[in-house]
Amino acid sequence: MSSNKDDGGWKKFLWNSEKGELLGRTGASWLKIFLFYVVFYGFLAGVFVGTIQAMLLTLSDYKPTWQDRVAPPGLSHTPRSDKAEVSFNLNDMETYLPYTKALREFLAKYDENDQKDMMKFEDCGEEPAEYKNRGDLESDVGIRKACRFSRTLLGPCSGLDDTEFGFKQGKPCLIVKLNRIVNYRPRPPTSNESIPEEAQPKVQPNVIPLHCTSKKEEDVGKIGEIKYYGIGGGFPLQYYPYYGKLLHPQYLQPLVALQFNNLTLNTELRIECKVFGDNIDYSDKDRYQGRFEVKFHINSL
Fold this sequence. Notes:
Blueprint: H1 2-14, E1 15-16, E2 21-22, E3 25-26, H2 27-57, E4 75-78, E5 85-89, H3 93-107, E6 121-122, E7 146-147, E8 173-178, E9 207-214, H4 220-223, E10 226-229, E11 234-236, H5 244-247, E12 256-260, E13 268-275, E14 291-299
Parallel strand pairs: 5-14, 6-7
Antiparallel strand pairs: 1-2, 2-3, 4-8, 8-12, 9-11, 9-13, 10-12, 13-14
């Protein structure tokens, strides 16, 4: 009997049909609670939206707000594998096909036919020159022209004559670029103090020099000749600054092609490449900041 009364009391608490109460409250009481929370959360949402809108008013569509905290650019290369390893067999095209395919796809946007529009591109010379100033980021100039970069500058690594990029002959090419940073102006080195002696001859006005060498001392005599192709063998200043995707949609960053002509076969070789500049630093936490390492293993057996 008591169980039935308890059940009835529980049900009556949920809904009391005599008093019209739900969970012990009348409909008018629930309406007040509902309206309170609508107003309360509506106010919070308004504060949140207002805060976001106020913050957006301080941001520019073209200029990064906290660019002074951006790290120096990364140095990257194509082809690139997850383990930074270029390994193939001279006698098996399938082993180096992924590398040559990656190079062809990367260089496709540098085809001269895609750079003919005089409204989008301009000639900036084939010798290193000073920065190309196209106005402030937030000026009324609008879309900025991009400097042309001809694939022919990359010599035998252009893919125009040798579609295998030297891999078939055991003389592989790498295409190297500095990653884009909006409004960044790389500064050439003003002294040789922080530059290895073998790289010092590459220092010249208006270009960021690139130099590659063996990572291990025991591999010094196994690397052989490295050829550098591009403008000044580095990254010329006339291609900077970069104005961002909105203002510089056709931008082509300058490239440097490396061809390794005498790598010792059937041996694992580690090579480190670095760029040198007054505002280019290196980080132990980021192995691609201003430099990269690549491991070659060319099998001829």
